[in-house]
Specification:
The chain is of the alpha+beta class. The chain has 6 helices and 7 strands. Strands 6-5-4-3-7 form a 5-stranded antiparallel sheet. Strands 1-2 form a two-stranded antiparallel sheet. A hairpin with a 2-residue loop joins strand 3 and strand 4. Helix 2 packs across helix 3.
């Protein structure tokens, strides 16, 4: 995971901070430091870098939403205010070519997801097949057979054979199918990262 994050210009502590903020928007510098197991000074430097790079935002003044003082909270992970045009163009090419060979790694909501992109129609069909084969979830299969939205640029990335990176392993090991809103992607790079014990 460290290798993947390094290629995105991030560290495990950066990722931990973003994950904490995704789970509990409004956390203070002190709360984030405690949750990420670093000092307040280290967290302050980390937050300044994340704010400078557009990953987090905080108000300049005011009370905390929970009423526990005046320390400006770190409100939330900052998604791209406008979806990244280059990433949207990659998604549009995948949609138009109906290819499932484009590999991509993204950071969204503090999670690192790596895998291959698929056109939405192909992704929906595969999810529908998996659900149809399930005795308990078969009735949900029809939801995924409805036609995908066609007008405008793509709004989501559709991953298949994808994993969420957790330490030196990917979850699930066999690869899963994920749908990620492009506007929620805070960093990305081309390529599917593999795993090793070395």
């Amino acid at each position: 995971m460290e290798e993947v994050l390094r290629s995105l210009g991030m560290t495990v502590t950066h990722c931990s901070c973003l994950e904490l903020l995704a789970q509990r928007p409004g956390m203070s510098n002190s709360e984030l430091a405690c949750g990420a197991f670093v000092t307040r000074q280290t967290m302050n430097m980390l937050l300044q870098a994340l704010e400078r790079d557009g990953y987090v935002i905080r108000p300049s003044e005011g009370f905390r939403p929970d009423g526990r003082g005046r320390e400006p909270p770190w409100l939330e992970c900052s998604s791209m205010s406008k979806p990244d045009k280059l990433l949207s163009d990659v998604a549009a090419l995948v949609e138009s070519g109906h290819s499932n060979q484009m590999s991509l790694t993204v950071v969204a909501g503090g999670a690192v997801i790596t895998g291959r992109l698929a056109p939405e129609a192909v992704w929906r069909a595969r999810v529908s097949e998996v659900l149809a084969d399930s005795a308990r979830l078969g009735e949900f299969s029809a939801v995924f057979t409805t036609a995908a939205r066609k007008e405008g640029p793509p709004t989501h990335l559709h991953f298949h054979v994808a994993r969420i990176l957790q330490g030196a392993v990917g979850i699930p090991e066999t690869g899963g199918m994920y749908r990620v809103a492009i506007e929620d992607v805070s960093a990305w790079t081309m390529g599917d990262f593999s795993y090793s014990d070395h």
